[in-house]
Design brief:
There is one protein chain. The relative contact order is 0.15. The chain contains three helices and no strands. The chain starts with 7 loop residues before the first helix and ends with a helix. The protein has one domain (18-78). Helix 2 packs antiparallel against helix 3 (51-78). With 81 residues, it is an all-alpha fold. The longest helix is centred in the C-terminal third of the chain and has 28 residues, at 51-78. Keywords: Membrane, Transmembrane, Transmembrane helix. The chain crosses the membrane at residues 21-46, 52-72. It comes from Saccharopolyspora dendranthemae.
Length: 81
């Protein structure tokens, strides 16, 4: 218990960098933005009755896109890794 599994060298990417939490956060924000946007468009096209659900997804997609931009800015400022 309490021991870390693997060292930084074992978890390093082929380029020698250790993946950071910002990278994971960036991926999750990007996937969330794309998913919400695609599902919102599909709801608008095929199920116009529950339009409020599509609008909620549009709002979530905009929030995720803003989050993506903010994370990318932080990742650029903080450097690699």
């Amino acid at each position: 218990m309490g021991e870390r599994e693997g060292t930084d060298d074992e978890r390093a990417l082929p380029g020698g960098q250790v993946p950071s939490a910002l990278t994971l956060w960036l991926w999750l924000a990007g996937i969330g933005a794309v998913f919400c946007a695609v599902v919102a468009v599909l709801l608008f096209l095929w199920l116009p009755e529950p339009a409020w659900v599509a609008w909620v997804l549009v709002i979530l997609a905009v929030i995720a896109a803003a989050d993506f931009c903010w994370i990318a800015r932080r990742a650029r400022r903080d450097g690699p890794g």
